[in-house]
């Protein structure tokens, strides 16, 4: 079977399109690369949606944690503490149990017991908590001068937050947030590994890598392929976040930014 | 454990629970707690060392060394730790044994790779085949520490690399003005000054490291999560004196509390450390301390 | 039987196998009654008793270690332990990578277990990831739901996630006997070539020793006694 045929058969296997049965013997390199790549669709799906949705919740949580009101502050603090303070797969375990029991009384929760929604919700809360802590830290270290300048120009309330505080917060928190995004994509491999059951052998990249490592009894092919995919994915994430970072910093004097790059050469 | 535990079927309530919670298997769970703590205590400094070397390599003026440092950071950071653990430990183990094999048995007639098998001479076995079980376990533990250190070292290297760039240039120029050479500037100014910029990132990594310990079972170390899962699963009366339904919920709740307390203690400690490092620094934190003192 | 014992001893002497070395027995420890961790935190079960007896007959010093199921074969070929004695069915796929002794449990039945009798075994079927049973379900056309441990698989039937679970009968039988809610459905299906001990392909001498020990246990009936003790009266014997 040619490699092109394999790609047609298994390229979308992870979402249930193509051959029903997984390859059983032979296990060419092409099959391994195709199926593990097909599994990456799930990792990208979980990572991207959780990241986008988590970004908005994180902003809310960070502002709530920095708020003077106790009623806003305490819930946000506890949410962040619980989700940052426990291992992800303990969270998966509890979420799975919770959704299963909710499902029994409320049929509306049925999709939550499947990975595509249940695991997504957990990852969404998890990344929201981690990012909120990053943004909260950034909120606290906004230079006093910026806020004073805003006051002097007559900004207050929402416009002041929207135009001055929020962009500065993003700018300061961005490098750490990039790291969090990388960690989130890595965390998506835990979904089928220790959280939710996989259905009809539809799983993520690690699920298929595990399948091949189990069938060929050789961990030194499938897992490095998985690693290669993730290195690529991480490079893409870093590139996208780098572009956003450039946009966030575009108002800064360009000269200063270039100097920043040269700096390491000066100290040697 | 207690004298009345000989016949658990006759017990009920608290006395049953006291016997149940002190079985040999539960002792393994309790014993796993110091194991995990010891692993963290050993991994943190080692990862810091690896990360420091990585950051120095990435900054090196000698291009190949800089490539090595940068690709180490990029590759290891890019791979999910689970995937790394699944093949790296076996590879590391085989690499060590292969090196020892080359050194100790230079005239071994058979190939090391025989089909799927990896066979070295018995003098090159780590630990030796006659070693008692605890040596095997300690060796597995050390492999886990080294693997964790290599993975987290890459993240530490990335944080330190950034922190070294964040030290205000004026401070380094002042050092040069005082007549320090580059090496002196590096060790006397840059390294002491970078920690305040590195600490938030390092603190975050510490939190991630704590939460990565459930992956230890992949490395063959039986940690608290392994035992909690093992103890919590439903037990029938045929294979256990203490039959019970699926109690994983309660064991995992215990784990949750353990990790939350551990996180809270770490947070308090890191907060204190940050305050201490911020003294006299040209940051908002340092400024706040200066004002508080005045 | 005496002659067999003598011949194994002779073999051991001539082969120059380092007798001082302990044989490390790799098992999973999460699979009663085959092997499990008992209340005292030690490896226990049918295979523990069998393995100890085999080691005694082959005059070997043995030591028990546990390993995750997923990486149990890679760790064997990499030399972290010397045998796998973990309820592993003899299959062609596995036989290509490692060697098996003769089987010490005859080919056995895999069974469907469900909450009611009228369950469709072509519906949602739970099984453990990477077992011969999960491959079977995947090929049968039913919707396969895979769990990391057999424990979670049974839990999924109880909470209604899966219509039924399909797994090795010996594992399911004690669970069904002791609980009122579960029942067997459908016909038993014979999979695999029985359970054997896995060894490295380069370890021919060790394999012969264990093979001889298993033969001797089959001949004097001790193996059958052990099988009945752990798997019940209805267990197929040799």
UniProtKB/TrEMBL annotation, chain A:
Stored SUPFAM superfamilies: MetI-like
Q: Where in the cell is it found?
A: Cell inner membrane; Cell membrane
Q: Please, one GO biological process term?
A: amino acid transport
Q: Where is the ABC transmembrane type-1 domain?
A: 40-244
Query: One GO cellular component from the entry?
Result: ATP-binding cassette (ABC) transporter complex
User: Could you name the domain of life of the organism this protein comes from?
Assistant: Bacteria
Is Glycosyltransferase found in the keyword set? no
Can you provide one Gene Ontology molecular function annotated for this UniProt record?
transmembrane transporter activity
Question: Does the record's keyword annotation contain NAD?
Answer: no
Q: What does the record say about its membrane topology? A: Multi-pass membrane protein
Report the sequence similarity comment from the record.
Belongs to the binding-protein-dependent transport system permease family. HisMQ subfamily.
- What are the protein's UniProt keywords? Cell inner membrane, Cell membrane, Membrane, Transmembrane, Transmembrane helix, Transport
Which named protein is this? His/Glu/Gln/Arg/opine family ABC transporter, permease protein
- Spell out where the chain crosses the membrane: 44-64, 76-99, 105-125, 181-200, 220-244
Q: Show the NCBIfam families listed in the entry.
A: HEQRo_perm_3TM (TIGR01726)
InterPro entries found in the cross-reference section: AA_ABC_transptr_permease_3TM, ArtM/GltK/GlnP/TcyL/YhdX-like, MetI-like, MetI-like_sf
TrEMBL record, chain B:
Q: What is its main location?
A: membrane
For biological process, the GO terms are:
transmembrane transport
Q: How does it sit in the membrane?
A: Multi-pass membrane protein
Pfam families in UniProt:
BPD_transp_1
Residues annotated as transmembrane: 29-53, 74-92, 139-164, 185-209, 249-270
Tell me which stretches of the chain form a coiled coil: none
As for subcellular location, the record says: Cell membrane
GO CC terms on record?
Answer: plasma membrane
**ABC transmembrane type-1 domain ranges (all copies):** 33-270
Among InterPro entries, the record links this protein to: ABC_transp_permease_HisMQ, MetI-like, MetI-like_sf
Keyword terms: Membrane, Transmembrane, Transmembrane helix, Transport
Q: Does the keyword Transmembrane apply?
A: yes
Q: Source organism's superkingdom?
A: Bacteria
Amino-acid biosynthesis: is it a keyword of this entry? no
> Which family, according to the similarity comment?
Belongs to the binding-protein-dependent transport system permease family.
- Write the protein's name: ABC transporter, permease protein, HisMQ family protein
UniProtKB/TrEMBL annotation, chain C:
Q: Where is the Solute-binding protein family 3/N-terminal domain?
A: 22-234
A GO cellular component annotation in the UniProt record: membrane
Q: Which Gene Ontology molecular function entries are recorded, alphabetically?
A: ligand-gated monoatomic ion channel activity
User: Where is the secretion signal located?
Assistant: 1-20
Where the record annotates domain Ionotropic glutamate receptor C-terminal, the positions are: 22-233
Alphabetically sorted, this entry's keywords are: Signal
Q: Would the keyword Cell membrane be found if you checked this record's keyword annotation?
A: no
Name it.
Answer: His/Glu/Gln/Arg/opine family ABC transporter, periplasmic His/Glu/Gln/Arg/opine family-binding protein
């Amino acid at each position: 079977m040619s490699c092109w045929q394999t790609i047609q058969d298994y390229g979308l296997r992870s979402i249930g399109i193509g051959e029903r049965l997984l390859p059983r013997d032979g296990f060419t390199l092409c099959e391994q690369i195709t199926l593990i790549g097909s599994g990456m669709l799930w990792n990208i799906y979980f990572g991207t949606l959780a990241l986008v949705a988590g970004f908005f919740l994180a902003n809310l949580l960070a502002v709530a944690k920095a708020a003077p009101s106790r009623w806003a502050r305490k819930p946000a603090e506890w949410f962040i503490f619980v989700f940052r303070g426990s291992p992800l797969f303990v969270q998966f375990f509890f979420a799975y149990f919770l959704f299963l029991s909710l499902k029994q009384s409320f049929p509306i929760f049925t999709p939550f017991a499947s990975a595509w929604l249940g695991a997504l919700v957990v990852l969404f809360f998890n990344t929201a908590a981690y990012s909120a802590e990053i943004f909260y830290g950034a909120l606290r270290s906004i230079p006093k001068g910026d806020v004073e300048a805003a006051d002097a120009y007559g900004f207050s309330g929402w416009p002041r937050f929207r135009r001055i505080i929020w962009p500065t917060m993003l700018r300061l928190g961005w490098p750490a947030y990039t790291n969090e995004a990388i960690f989130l994509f890595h965390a998506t491999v835990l979904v089928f590994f220790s959280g939710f059951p996989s259905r009809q052998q539809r799983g993520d990249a690690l699920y298929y890598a595990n399948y091949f490592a189990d069938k060929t009894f050789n961990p030194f092919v499938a897992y490095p392929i998985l690693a290669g995919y993730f290195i690529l994915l991480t490079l893409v994430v870093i590139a996208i976040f780098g572009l956003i970072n450039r946009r966030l910093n575009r108002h800064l004097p360009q000269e200063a930014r270039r100097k920043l790059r040269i700096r390491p050469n000066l100290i040697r | 454990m207690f004298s009345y535990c000989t016949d658990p079927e006759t017990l009920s309530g608290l006395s049953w629970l006291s016997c149940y919670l002190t079985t040999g298997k539960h002792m393994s769970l309790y014993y796993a707690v110091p194991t995990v703590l010891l692993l963290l205590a050993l991994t943190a400094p080692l990862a810091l060392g690896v990360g420091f070397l990585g950051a120095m390599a990435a900054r090196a003026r000698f291009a190949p060394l800089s490539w090595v440092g940068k690709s180490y950071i990029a590759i290891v950071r890019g791979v999910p730790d689970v995937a790394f653990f699944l093949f790296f430990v076996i590879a590391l183990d085989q690499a060590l044994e292969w090196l020892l094999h080359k050194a100790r048995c230079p005239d071994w007639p058979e190939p090391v790779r025989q089909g799927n098998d990896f066979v070295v001479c018995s003098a090159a076995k780590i630990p030796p085949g006659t070693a008692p079980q605890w040596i095997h376990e300690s060796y597995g533990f050390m492999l886990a520490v080294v693997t964790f250190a290599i993975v987290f070292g890459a993240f530490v290297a990335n944080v330190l690399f950034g922190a070294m760039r964040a030290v205000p240039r004026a401070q380094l120029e002042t050092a040069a003005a005082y007549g320090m050479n580059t090496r002196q500037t590096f060790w006397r100014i840059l390294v002491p000054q970078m920690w305040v910029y590195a600490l938030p990132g390092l603190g975050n990594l510490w939190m991630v490291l704590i939460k990565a310990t459930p992956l230890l079972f992949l490395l063959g170390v039986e940690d608290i999560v392994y035992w909690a899962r093992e103890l919590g699963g439903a037990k029938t009366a045929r294979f256990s004196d203490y039959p019970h339904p699926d109690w994983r919920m309660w064991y995992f709740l215990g784990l949750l509390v353990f990790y939350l307390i551990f996180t809270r203690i770490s947070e308090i400690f890191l907060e204190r450390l940050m305050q201490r490092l911020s003294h006299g620094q040209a940051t908002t934190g340092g400024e706040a301390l200066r004002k508080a003192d005045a | 039987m005496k002659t067999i014992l003598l011949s194994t001893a002779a073999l051991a002497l001539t082969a120059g196998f380092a007798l001082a070395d302990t044989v490390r027995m790799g098992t999973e420890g999460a699979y009663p009654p085959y092997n499990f961790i008992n209340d005292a935190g030690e490896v226990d079960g049918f295979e523990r008793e069998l393995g100890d007896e085999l080691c005694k007959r082959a005059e070997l010093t043995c030591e028990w270690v546990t390993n995750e199921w997923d990486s149990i074969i890679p760790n064997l070929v990499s030399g972290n332990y010397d045998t796998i004695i973990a309820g592993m069915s003899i299959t062609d796929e596995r036989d290509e990578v490692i060697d098996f002794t003769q089987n010490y449990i005859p080919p056995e039945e895999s069974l469907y277990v469900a909450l009611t009798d009228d369950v469709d075994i072509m519906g949602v079927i739970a099984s453990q990831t990477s077992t011969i049973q999960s491959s079977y379900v995947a090929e049968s056309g039913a919707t396969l739901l895979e769990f990391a441990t057999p424990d979670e698989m049974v839990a999924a039937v109880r909470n209604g996630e899966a219509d039924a679970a399909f797994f090795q009968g010996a594992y399911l039988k004690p669970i069904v006997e002791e609980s009122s809610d579960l029942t067997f459905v459908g016909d038993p299906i014979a999979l695999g070539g029985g359970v054997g001990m896995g060894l490295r392909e380069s370890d021919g001498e060790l394999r012969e020793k264990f093979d001889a020990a298993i033969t001797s246990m089959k001949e004097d009936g001790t193996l059958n006694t052990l099988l009945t003790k752990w798997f019940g009266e209805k267990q197929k014997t040799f």
